[in-house]
Write a structure and sequence with these properties.
Layout (H helix, E strand, L loop, with lengths): L2 E4 L1 H17 L3 H16 L7 E2 L2 H5 L2 E5 L5 E7 L3 E9 L3 H17 L19 H6 L2
Parallel strand pairs: 1-5
Antiparallel strand pairs: 2-3, 3-4, 4-5
Helix pairs in contact: 1-2
């Protein structure tokens, strides 16, 4: 099992998406959270069905895992011992986000402090329980 780390901005994106879904239909945010949880669980496995992203980000090793029910992709940088989640991106808005992914990778190379109170057991950050995290802000 590989380590899973998530950029703080990606956590914020997941929280925003969950809040939007909850406004659209009560209970839909919980379904979105389950989809995110399932994707994160899958990312921890050794063999993951990731696809390269187009453009310069793809040449730097940035890949994505598409959620099945929701029009979101989990944008990641795959390493030998870990998966670094760069973003949770709506598929209609992915191109602009991919342009910013290089900055997030560079920021991660410096240091990424943990964000407490999200999903225990995965270091250092994860967006599971995104609604709970959003309510606690």
């Amino acid at each position: 099992m590989r380590a899973l780390r998530i950029h703080a901005a990606a956590v914020d994106e997941a929280v925003e998406a969950a809040a939007w879904y909850e406004k659209e239909r009560p209970g839909l945010a919980a379904e979105f959270e389950r989809a995110v949880d399932a994707a994160l669980d899958l990312l921890e496995e050794e063999v993951v069905p990731l696809t390269s992203v187009p453009g310069a980000a793809g040449t730097r090793g940035v890949k994505r895992l598409m959620l099945r029910r929701f029009p979101y992709s989990v944008i990641v940088h795959e390493r030998d011992t870990e998966i670094f989640v760069i973003a949770f991106a709506h598929r209609a808005k992915t191109s602009g986000l991919l342009a910013r992914s290089g900055a997030r990778l560079a920021q991660n190379a410096r240091t990424q402090p943990p964000k407490a109170g999200l999903r225990p057991g995965i270091e250092p950050l994860t967006p599971c329980g995104v609604l709970a995290a959003a309510r606690s802000r």
